[in-house]
């Protein structure tokens, strides 16, 4: 199980890019942290989610 923003999901073995493609997140407007470390955007397709991973996804919102 992988915990994403506090919710446990059975997505072990998928890449971070695969997960994001199945969501409404805009990869250009988010930051992703895996087990306490920022994942560079160019590594999303190479980052395979493992059992016990903790992922935090933060969306950037513009405004003024």
| Largest β-sheet summary | 5 strands, mixed
CATH C-level class:
Alpha Beta
Strand content: 25-35%
* CATH H-level superfamily title: Beta-grasp domain
Output the radius of gyration. 11 Å
Tell me the number of helical segments per DSSP (H or I, 4 or more residues long): 1
- Give the ordered list of helices and strands: EEHEEE
Distance between the termini: 39 Å
What overall form do the CA principal axes indicate? globular
Number of strands: 5
Structural class: mainly beta
What level of helicity do the residues show?
under 10%
Give me the CATH fold name: Ubiquitin-like (UB roll)
Show unreliable segments: none
Strand order of the largest sheet: 2-1-5-3-4
Polypeptide structure, described:
This protein is mainly beta and 64 residues long. The chain has one helix at 16-21, and strands at residues 2-4, 7-9, 30-34, 37-38, 54-59. The protein has a five-stranded mixed sheet, with no helix packed on it. It is globular. The chain starts with a strand and ends in a 5-residue tail after the last strand.
């Amino acid at each position: 199980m992988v915990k994403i923003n506090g919710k446990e999901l059975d997505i072990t073995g998928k890449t971070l890019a695969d997960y994001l493609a199945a969501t409404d997140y805009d990869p250009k407007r988010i930051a992703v942290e895996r087990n306490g470390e920022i994942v560079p955007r160019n590594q999303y397709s190479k980052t395979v989610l493992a059992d016990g991973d903790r992922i935090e996804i933060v969306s950037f919102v513009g405004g003024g």
